[in-house]
Write a structure and sequence with these properties.
This protein is an alpha+beta fold and 427 residues long. Helices cover 41% and strands 13% of the residues. It has helices at residues 4-7, 13-26, 55-68, 73-80, 103-108, 110-121, 125-144, 154-161, 169-176, 181-192, 208-217, 228-231, 234-243, 254-266, 279-283, 286-291, 294-303, 339-343, 414-417, 421-424, and strands at 31-32, 51-54, 245-248, 271-272, 308-317, 350-355, 364-368, 375-379, 386-390, 396-398, 405-413. The strands form three sheets. A six-stranded antiparallel β-sheet has the order 3-9-6-11-5-4. Helix 7 (125-144) crosses helix 10. The longest helix is centred in the N-terminal third of the chain and has 20 residues, at 125-144. It is elongated.
Length: 427
Amino acid sequence: MIGARWLSSCRTVEDVASCIISLYEENEEKLYSDEGDTDDGARRGYEDLNLAIGFVDHATQAAFQASEAGADEETIIAALLHDIGWLQEKPTEDQSLLTTADNSVLLAKHDIIGGKMLRECGFSERLSKLVEGHVQAKRYLTFKEEGYYAGLSAGSKFTLSHQGGVMTKVEAENFENDADFDKYCQIRRWDEGAKVKDWDVPSIQSYKDMMIRCLWSALWKDRRGFSSNFFVSVNEISKLKEQGVVIIRNLTTIAENGALRKLVNRLPVKSIRNFTDVDDLCMYGIDTFVKEGRLAQVCGTLSGHNNQILLHERIGTLEGDHKIPHTYTSHCDKNRDNPLSKKTKAGEIIICFLAIEDFGDECAIKFPNCEDGEESEVVVLNAGDAVFFMDSSPHCFSGNSQDLTLISTAYGNRDELGLNARDLYKH
C-alpha cells in the first residue's frame, strides 16, 4: 500500500481523516515553483510558476469554490484532496506508476497516485476517480479550448507531457460520456482558481467531519484495487488446490479496518456468531461484506463455486479452543463435529480468517504438513490480511495473546451441500 507509512498509526475511521489533515498541514509551507533545481520546485512536481500560496491554502480554496457552487460532499472532498498525490513518497515496489526514475516524472502522475492513495484510505471509487479526473480534464481542455494550452504554466506543460499529453478526438469523446464529466472539468477550474494570496476561506480542519462521512459511506464498496479479480490470480487458485492455504494481503481498506475495530469494541459479548442479530453489523454493511460482498467474492473466485453459501460467520476475539496462551493441538475442521464437511470431498468447504488487529511477531497460524507433521507454512497476519484454507487442512494457532480479533467465515457449494447446509454446518 503506497500510503502505508503515514497511515500506520490509524486505528479508527476518524484517525484516517486526521492523518490526511496532518499530512497536508506538514506540507503547508510548500510553495508551487517552476525552479527545477530546488527541493520544492518542478523536480518535486509542483506545477504552477511562482504561486505564492501554501499547499493547504490551495487545497482549501479549491474546496471552498466547490462548496460555494453547491457541489455534493464527495466532490467537495475531491476538490480538497485533488493534489494529495504530490505528497506521496516515491514508491519502491509499484514501478508501474513510473515512466522514468525521475521524481518529477513520477509526481507528474499525481492523479494516479492520489487516486490509489484515496482508495487505500477507504474513499469511494467515485471520489477517487474525481481526483484522477482533474488531470484528465486538463488534457481534455487543451484539446477542446483554443488557447488553453498557451495559458498553462511551464510546470503544468511539463507535467502534461507525462500525463498523456493533449487528448485525441476519440479520447475526448469517451471522456465526455463519463457520468462525472462535468465534475472533472469543474474541479480543474476550481484548481486553476485556487491560487489567490490572502483569501480567507474555511480551514482544512473544517472539512474533517465531511471527510469522515465520505469514508463511512464508502465502507465495503467495490473500488479499483479492492476486488476479487485484483486479489485472486491463477497462482492463488492453484496454491489453494495444491497446498490447501492461500494468503491475501490488504483485503480491506484502512478505514474498513478502523470500522471493524470500533464495532468489535462495541459488541455486547466477546464474539458474535450470527451477524444478522447485531444491528451495528447490518447498519455498516459487514453482514453483506461476508455474505455476498468482497470477502465472499474472493472466496468464490478462489474456489470456483458458482452457487456459494455462507455456512458460518463470527466476529470478535478468539474464543474456546482458539484462545491461545499457548499452542493448541493441530486439527482439521473436516475431522471435527462437522457433519457436512465429513460428507463432502476434500476442499469443498473453505474457511477464512480476516485479521482485525495485527497478530504481531509472537502469534501466528500454523499449517502443519498432513503426512510428516512438519510445518509447511507459518502465517502472521496484519490488520486487513486474510488467510483462506480448506477445511481439510490441519492448522493451529500459536502465541501468547488471547485478545486477537478477527472475522471467521466458512463457505461451501450449495449445489453439493444442499439447501439447508447453513443449518447443518457445525464449527
